[in-house]
């Protein structure tokens, strides 16, 4: 290793593409190479734009592992036509995941349909949809990874709000078909999450581990509140230890949606993220 | 009852003062009289400004029941001087509650101190502080009512995020000294809340029932997101039934923090709130 070679990002560090979405896919692959980042989590829209086959070639040539594809889901529709379109779209997402060579499709369940106030019913519809999708995914080597989102997203984005709820859904299916995502941003407040991580570990259901920090005040709409590691309230090492103790040996994906990070040079933002990971997660 | 007499608000309907904070205390009392509202939840700052004794006289003369005083709490300080100040302030809040004739002091636990990432430790400090305050409150006929706030407030406002956590704290004390607040806005997403309401009912710990609707998108800072009844995603009748089945026979307090509501004529906003209560909670 020459003196100018970067030290390389930590093992099993993965950068979720949305964290540095100012980078095109080729620029992202290049920056990962320069910074020694070996894993990337990708998003459907940029993959579709670049092309599934071209993306597969790009990451293969760059020696990158695609740790997840974000995202499928949005399965809470009551209207049959809308539900059918959602299922079709999820089958397409599964095909894309297989096409770019990842075994993990992150699933965000979807919120309440307009005027609907029945959270419990919506969660059941998610279960019904997973039952239709899981075999299709399994045939293609893709596992559906249910991501509980913070309860502040329960009405408009994801009716699955806790790891406990996600596991209640996942456990209706074989563990190699449906798992869960542990994302510090969504679960950090939950005193039951440590026990649920252990529960997920026992059946090998931790499909992905994602990190972002919890920062306040939250911005309007709250979606872009995910903060750079170290800027907020989350004790990452405690969560890292919990997933490790649960037997998880996979990647840790940094997924941040943050206007400030997006306004900066993408490679610099990625380099900072690697450093923050060293300082706060390792 | 003459033809011009308003029909009167529903029995056990209480208006939390902050919902119509544009009204002075005398104007609030007058509007309550005109609209047949028999209960009010008050806040410390306007009570202090008007005077505790003057407030007591005003509500007594108006025939109003003070259903709660908001709020004590903010008990998570590590610094001894800061902690001591918080305890003093809470003793003052207890005195004020007793002075205005309510038996319920709503307690918002407080967030993480700056730079602190230990939610579990903060919750223990809340328990320690409650142990100091509960006897003082009991001597004055005041019950401390722990309010779990939505998990989106965990870092900056309230480390107690679920009814389960609130009950874990409350049950360290006799039920007549420490209870919990069930607020639909904070618990509506929680699939465990129905069982926790039953648990709270079994030991007579439901000290207050508050309602506000969940509306999105959330505003920046999220504090003023509480929406008018019927504008959002909450099935109020389901929650009303749960607290009733748990044996709660007390007031239902409408507590909304909302810029739009505050910008309107206070009496009109109160009248609308009564109507919305009839339409969505009764």
Automatic annotation (TrEMBL), chains A, B:
It holds the Pfam family AP_endonuc_2. InterPro entries: IolE/XylAMocC-like (IPR050312), Xyl_isomerase-like_sf (IPR036237), Xyl_isomerase-like_TIM-brl (IPR013022). GO terms for molecular function: isomerase activity. It comes from the Bacteria. Keywords: Isomerase. Residues 31-272 form the Xylose isomerase-like TIM barrel domain. Coiled coil: none annotated. This is Sugar phosphate isomerase/epimerase.
């Amino acid at each position: 290793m020459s003196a100018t070679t970067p030290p390389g990002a930590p093992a099993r560090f993965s950068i979720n593409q949305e964290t540095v979405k100012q980078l095109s896919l080729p620029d992202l692959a290049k920056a990962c190479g320069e910074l020694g980042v070996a894993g990337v989590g990708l998003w459907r829209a940029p993959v579709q734009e670049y092309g599934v086959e071209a993306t597969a070639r790009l990451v293969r040539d760059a020696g990158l592992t695609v740790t997840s594809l974000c995202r499928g889901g949005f399965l809470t529709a009551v209207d049959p036509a809308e539900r059918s379109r959602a299922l079709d779209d999820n089958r397409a997402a599964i095909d894309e995941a297989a096409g770019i060579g990842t075994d993990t499709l992150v699933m965000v369940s979807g919120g309440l349909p307009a005027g609907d106030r029945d959270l419990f019913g919506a969660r059941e519809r998610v279960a019904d949809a997973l039952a239709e999708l899981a075999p299709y995914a399994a045939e293609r080597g893709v596992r559906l990874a249910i991501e509980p989102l913070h309860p502040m997203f329960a009405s408009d984005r994801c009716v699955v709000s806790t790891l406990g709820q996600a596991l209640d859904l996942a456990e209706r299916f074989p563990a190699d078909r449906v798992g869960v995502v542990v994302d510090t941003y969504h679960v950090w407040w939950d005193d039951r999450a440590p026990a649920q991580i252990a529960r997920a570990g026992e059946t090998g259901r931790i499909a992905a581990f994602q990190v972002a920090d919890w920062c306040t005040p939250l911005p309007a709409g709250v979606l872009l509140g995910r903060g750079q590691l170290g800027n907020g309230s989350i004790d990452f090492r405690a969560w890292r230890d919990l997933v490790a103790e649960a037997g998880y040996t996979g990647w840790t994906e940094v997924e941040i949606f943050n206007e400030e990070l997006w306004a900066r040079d993408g490679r610099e933002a990625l380099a900072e993220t690697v450093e923050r990971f060293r300082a706060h997660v390792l």
